[in-house]
Amino acid sequence: MIEVRGVNKSFGDAHVLKDINVSFQPGNVNLVIGQSGSGKSVLAKCIVGLHEVDSGGILYDGRNFTEMDRYERKEIRKEIGMLFQGSALFDSLTVEQNVMFPLSMFTEMSKEEMRERANFCLDRVNLTNKNHLLPAECSGGMQKRIGIARAIAMNPKYLFCDEPNSGLDPKTSIVIDNLIKEITYEYNMTTIVITHDMNSVIEIGDYIVFIHNGQKWWEGDKSEILTTDNKEINAFVYAADFMQQIKSMLGKR
Amino acid sequence: MKVITNIGKYFIMLRYVFSRPERFKIYKNRIFDEIEIIGLSSIPLVALLSAFMGAVITLQTASNMDSPLLPVETVGFITRQTTILEFSPTVISLILAGKIGSNIASEVGTMRVTEQIDALEIMGVNSLGYLVLPKIIAGVVTFPFIIIISMALSITGGLVAGLQSGLCSQEDYVKGLRYWFSVDDINYALVKTVVFAFIITSVAAFYGYYTKGGALDVGKSSTQAVVYSSIAILLANFVLTQLLLL
After folding, report:
1. What is the CA radius of gyration of chain B?
2. pLDDT band at A73 (very low <50, low <70, confident <90, very high)
3. Residue B123 contacts residue B113 (beta carbons within 8 Å)
4. Which residues contact A231 (CB under 8 A, 6 or more apart)?
5. Which of A232, B7, B18, B97 has the CA that lies 20 to 30 A from A151?
6. Is A88 in contact with B121 (Cβ distance < 8 A)?
7. Angstrom distance (rounded) from CA B233 to CA B239
8. Is the pTM higher than 0.90?
9. DSSP of B57-107, one letter per residue?
10. Is B115 in the A-facing interface, judged by CB distances under 8 Å?
């Protein structure tokens, strides 16, 4: 379980995260939703240690990440996989080398074993025969899938996905969402997805945390988010549902 | 104040750069890659510049020697001293600060803004060690060879220009080259070169690594890397000259 306890984070005068307390459910897909600029990506970066928190703590299965030195953090990070918004694949490495990279850094596997594992992960995300392409030669959806393959290469306990659907068409977004959901259950990972896509909430969200103006505004499961009378959540959900209404209106013609 | 903060950040960065690597084998491969990018790819530019600069030094010296009391051999002597003491180690390093410094800063800066460095950190890789250390080692190892090539080509360019213009004979030029020759001059030049190589690679990596923002900021970091590594080279040149020659 990942626990966030009383986390505060400021950048200069801007107080971005205000006393956030959340417990993310293990073995499930946890969604952090909110409008752009609400602080959800900063929260994710604080959880993985890319930003230092000003106060509060982050606990990975009871281990206090914020109090660890860099060597102890390194060990925790070997248990973390992360899919970045822009995929963050290494430009100079091929698809296969990207997936093999964490294996080559932290395992004693032979080159053949690493290649086998990389191919397994790429097969898992439905990417075959693309091993020798460079990231620049792949589409946005393919890059996301390679990012997922790289994230799961080390069999992580925790998976973080920052805006996994950004820049993708609706069909590819559903493919990526389903992949994240399947992999989470298959490997029994604790997954945290940062998104503002309501379709993802409906498709894959087991547990949802709503961040508004740097504060945790609401948390609950998928069924509750559609029935809550919280004004800010309704405003957020309605904005996305507007597109659904247009779709149903067009269908009636 | 910002300058002092940056100097502090630079030395903290160096501490992480020189911390124990995760995998020596991977670092070894990266060093060979960087030797090719930083060292070998610079040789054509250095060769061209050195040959022409040597030629110009010879022509300028020969055409400005009006006094009949000065022997013609002086042309070879001055070309050698200028080349070995300052042109090859300092001027070529300044030019390489432009070529290699901007290359390193833009490469590392792009990795920063596209979250590739964050990806390394999340994996538990020491991103500074992985990205910067191979560049520093490659620079420090290859620059002395590049500068020796530069010295040889500059002196040869001077000889060709002297002969072709008829301002001095081969015998006079070579005689001048051998006047009061001291191996210490070469050692002095190579010590300077190693220091300059370290400055170029580490300062450029510093500005690239701490880039914030987007593509525009990568461009700014590249410019800053070239400007500040050039200033650092000039300062280090002054200090080293005082220390080594006086």
Report:
1. 21
2. confident
3. no
4. none
5. B18
6. no
7. 10
8. no
9. HHHHHHHH---TTS-TTHHHHHHHHIIIIIIIIIIHHHHHIIIIIHHHHHH
10. yes
